[in-house]
Write a structure and sequence with these properties.
Blueprint: H1 2-17, E1 26-31, H2 36-43, E2 49-53, H3 61-73, E3 77-81, H4 87-95, E4 100-103, H5 109-119, H6 141-151, E5 153-158, H7 161-165, H8 167-170, E6 178-181, H9 183-189, H10 199-215, E7 219-223, H11 228-236, E8 241-246, H12 247-266
Parallel strand pairs: 1-2, 1-8, 2-3, 3-4, 4-5, 5-6, 6-7, 7-8
Length: about 270
């Protein structure tokens, strides 16, 4: 038992020492099924990071902490997508051991500043100090404090035309590490929900990429459907922080791919 604890601590130290995942090309995915086995499988598959989704799932904070623990023990970066830009939830998921947050519907500089402030300790932000899992229940407080200053990750979701219109100012907020495009909500705000080949959507995506490159804010998009060809295309387009599918879509597409092949043979 002692050896397993030592191994877990070694994994944690290795993870804490790595550079930010937004500083290089990384591929992650989304977790919506709150079962440890699902996360264990996903974390063993080779992803650089995994995001526990609290916005569009029934996962609780307690379940999220357990999923974060499993992800971290596998040497993968654990992130949490919030249900909203809520300071109390940010504090709780960070105290649970999340290495960073993904904040939905950031449409203004005020939204971005609010999220960053809630994730950072004073004097940079307003996050209150606690002695929870992230801080080793008090035994690693100083180490965590030093890590948080340099390595805690704040990513905003650009998923509304209002955000695009304010993008230069949003991407100028200090402490922002990256962005994600929320394709469905963004297309919905344009009045073309789910029409990802529509010229207006393509033009909007190009504008986001242009401003991000200008401001040197790393980012990418969520390829909701796990399509390897689109993943390669996204990398060739210069995206460096990419979510590839999610547990539910990977499960669904994997099942359908096999069954459709069988049905064609039977026909």
């Amino acid at each position: 038992m002692f050896n397993r604890q030592e191994e877990a601590e070694e994994h944690r130290e290795q993870r804490m020492s790595k550079s930010k995942i937004t500083d290089r090309l990384t591929i992650g995915s989304w977790i919506q099924i709150g079962h440890p086995a699902v996360v264990d499988i996903m974390a063993s598959a080779g992803f650089d990071w995994l995001t526990v989704d609290l916005e569009h799932s029934a996962i609780t904070i307690q379940e999220a902490e357990e999923l974060i623990r499993i992800i971290e023990l596998k040497g993968v970066v654990p992130l949490v997508r919030l249900s909203s830009n809520n300071a109390e939830q940010i504090k709780r998921v960070m105290d649970s051991g999340a290495h960073g947050i993904i904040v939905p519907m950031v449409n203004s500089t005020e939204d971005a500043r609010k999220a960053i402030s809630a994730a950072k300790y004073p004097p940079v932000g307003t996050r209150s100090f606690g002695l929870a899992r992230a801080q080793g229940y008090g035994t690693k407080f100083s180490e965590y404090l030093n890590w948080e200053k340099e390595s805690a990750i704040v990513v905003v979701q650009i998923e509304h035309i209002d955000a695009v219109n304010n993008l230069e100012s949003i991407f100028s907020v200090p402490g922002l590490d990256g962005y994600f495009v929320g394709p469905y909500d963004l297309s919905g705000s344009l009045g073309i929900p789910g029409e990802f080949e529509h010229p207006e959507y393509i033009q909007t995506m190009a504008e986001i990429k242009r401003i991000a490159d200008k401001k040197k804010i790393p980012g990418g998009l969520h390829l909701v459907e796990p399509d390897p060809d689109k993943l390669v295309q996204s990398i060739n387009e210069g995206h460096r922080f990419i979510a590839y599918g999610m547990d539910t879509r990977i499960l669904d597409t994997g099942c359908r791919l096999g069954l459709n092949s069988i049905k064609k043979l039977m026909a």
